[in-house]
Amino acid sequence: MRLPLKPLVALLGLAMVWTPFVAPAPPAQALPDGLAPTPPMGFNNWNSTGCAIDEKMIRDTADLFVSTGLKDAGYEFVNVDDCWAAEKRDPLTRRLTHHPTRFPSGIKALADYVHSKGLKFGIYSSAGTLTCARTMPGSLDFEEIDAQTFADWGVDYLKYDNCHHQNRPALERYTAMRDALRKTGRPIVYSLCEWGENKPWEWGADVGHLWRTTGDINDSWQSVLTLFKANAALARHAGPGGWNDPDMLEVGNGGMTDTEYRSHFSLWSIMAAPLLIGTDLRKATPAALEILGNREAIAVNQDRLGAQATVVRSANGHWVLAKPLAGGDLAVTLFNETEQTATVSATARELGLPRRAGYLVRDLWARQDAHSAGTISATLPAHATAFFRVRAGGEWWKAPPAVALGLGLPVVAEGIPSTITPAGHTVTATVTATNHGRVPALLPRAALTTPSGWRVTPPATDGPSRVLAPGRTLTTRWRLTPPPGTPPGTAPLAAGLSFRAPGVGEVRHAVTETLTVPPVVPSGVSDLGGVAWATAANGYGPVERDMSNGGAKAGDGRTLTINGVPYPKGIGAHAPTQIVFYLDGRCTSLTTDVGVDDERDPRLPNQATLTGEIWADGVKRADTGLLTWRDPAVSVTADLTGARYLRLVGTVGPDNNRYDRIDWAGPRLTCEG
Length: 673
Fold this sequence. Notes:
By secondary structure, the protein is α+β, with helices and mostly antiparallel strands. The chain contains 11 helices and 38 strands. The strands form 8 sheets. An 8-stranded parallel beta sheet has the order 7-6-5-4-3-2-1-8.
């Protein structure tokens, strides 16, 4: 039997006063061709393969779009990036031609195959004399020939890059290709891959259908975070037919956790960013496909109103974004960029929602409905995002109360992830359940599933045991200990909550964390480059041992070199970066040279400025000051006496983080037995 709550609206005496949502200002007038009314969705190979591309991968991808359900979810473009063409143009026609070994059947045959699957085909060029990989000619001064060639092949999408442009103005180069594409008469979605260097969001709507607002993405959390922040500020420039593009998706490429990939997909979805899959679908895991195929998140991205989410709040790394949807619903993301579990909340008033007795709240990842009295809230692990669709009013009373479930671990020190749990040390896991609904949650029960073999004490509970009233919190604590000798690695920790909702029945929620048992540094004097770290985050690609940071792939660096001086040992990273080591209070000092690695682009003389810092627990023990690529290495020594954790931090200088490769060169860590 349902609780008769509908009449309660009148009893509560809530006036139905509308507070209008302040929508973003309309974008510049989009091209009058009707293309890209919603953000383009599809695939591009570059993030997963680079130049290691062939026609079989593109055919396989088209097949997988159909067989995995991605086509039905909305993905339609199958795009080939750089390296598809022969090294030189045809000497007679001056046209681009297919690479003879990578694409032996030719581009038209490939486009025909993609079209036969009910999909669309995209291709790549650059507004310069060469493409970025330098393997094929660019289209500068060949715009009309190349545009007609693409049209003749049946191309539906052009990604137009920005390399080797001979210092010609961006607007001139990109407009020339726009005019050439238009002249062909074929509808071709035009992607301006200008990297945001000349503020294309201010002029792109008159030239193309989407424009890059940022530099290239890579498969790291710092990259996603940096690009998100740059793109989030540009909401007023996006709309139907013209979209801000913070670059392609990295979901599934292996450099981030599933939590981080869900955040990546959530943030790109609510920002109305193009959703171009960047992983090799032939190797995609079920978890990656589940994220990429979330149709409720995709529906927010593809909403016909075409608004990009605006930032409601971002203080202390706790973000709230809101996106108005056609029909009056509001999409909301709550995002925790920090290293610690945090509760992020927003009120209906803050979100600009009209005042109602209740709000229907749909969790787009849990795929569950709940109702709220006016607070949208989630307790989020580090780097996690909650994604909701909120409706003011409606039949909210038919849904159970919104109970925010959280799993928290104690903060050790600034910058140290709370999920690090050393062997032999006891930590307290706290599970909270807060009722944000209008009705009570009955018989609430919290549970904790711990890693096998860990010691766990019986729970201690604060708060109501039988009725969790609106606005009340149930708190349950467990003490858990990984036994001494537990090998380093990760282990899952899961919290669950069950309760009964009036008129609904039993409701269950769950949340998980991944704990890390860190390795302990060795005794004596060690080369830190050979010591296993607890966690590492990097601004570009992986942190490397005994080589420079290199590129996006592991092991692609060079000899550590600072201002011409080589170092055989050390750590190569890229700002912004943080590397954490577990010392267990046994170490006394770290001495190292620090500097900007010589691996950089000599054509960019003003790039590469950064700062190196050494932290012991929550205290900064050494700081290099601002370093540039012109500076010799700075030698620093940090006192680590009594510290449990060591953090090596590289921060970005006043420009940006391009080529901010920081070397910790010849580092010597001294520890007791």
